[in-house]
Here is the input.
Amino acid sequence: MAVRARYKLEIRRMRPDDLDEVMVIEKGAFRHPWSTELFRRELEHDWSTILVSVEPLAPLAMPGKTATELVLGFIIFWLVHDEVHILNVAVAPEARRRGIARALMVEAEKRAHASNAALMTLEVRRSNQGALDLYREFDYRAVGVRPNYYVDEGEDAIVMVKELKK
Ligand SMILES: CC(C)(COP(=O)(O)OP(=O)(O)OC[C@H]1O[C@@H](n2cnc3c(N)ncnc32)[C@H](O)[C@@H]1OP(=O)(O)O)[C@@H](O)C(=O)NCCC(=O)NCCS
Here is the structure.
């Protein structure tokens, strides 16, 4: 049987070979997931960053298996001028409520500071209480509503912002 040792989680930039694992998380997290092609394009944009939270694994004692990490969550953000816009945060269902999204938010904000960004922004579904609680914990303020933003369900988006202190 393969033996897995559990170590600390790490956060690093997503690589093209993470795509399959990221897509599993994306599909498990959203009713209307982004396509593989969209993720592939994000990886190529200079203004876009995708960070993944990975759990290092002991090498699997199985021939042909080379995976040494398990991707448990990701965050996507754009840096445009002095503004960081968070487009997507998701964590594998079995890894939720372990602080992974919180760690990804902390790292995104650290990188925003390092890039001299002044503002963080995001949109969230009105009904997404878990995400709203997460963002409020980081002192995001709701500044407006985009009615009917998620057209498939006709759901409103809450627009949230956070000013970064210099
Ligand atoms: C929202 C999501 C990213 C949170 O990921 P997570 O790793 O479970 O979050 P964390 O463990 O870091 O939670 C941090 C805090 O956020 C809040 N929170 C997170 N999920 C919550 C939930 N389901 N209900 C209520 N509060 C929640 C809590 O305050 C939590 O702190 P606590 O666990 O100490 O109470 C995850 O549930 C997910 O992938 N959901 C589907 C995709 C999605 O909705 N993404 C956000 C919109 S883009």
Summary: The first strand starts at residue 10 and ends at 13. Residues 1-6 have pLDDT under 50 and may be disordered. Helices lie at 19-29, 36-44, 100-114, 129-137. The CA atoms of residues 13 and 152 lie 31 Å apart.
